[in-house]
Model the fold of this input.
Amino acid sequence: MPLISTSEITLPEAEKILFKLCKHYAIKVPVVFDSIHADIAFPIGRCRISREGDLLRMRCEADSAAKLERVQLVMDEHLELMARRKALPIAWHRQA
Done:
């Protein structure tokens, strides 16, 4: 059973950021996406994103705590890059 963490963040131009994020990831890993949903399959885990207006909801999964933390870090770093903002307030919540 995978470990799961979730996060939500509101970003101006979330649709554009989601598109750029997915195109960037698709260079190296399998990504299925449209303007509202994304499924990113990293070698260490997976992240699913859904968008409602400027709100991005993320759900990351991995088979160990270390891998889950790595997926979260990758998401954090790349969201900051695509949003062109440093230190985005991304709070991850581990599900029991």
Residues 39 and 48 are 4 Å apart (CA to CA).
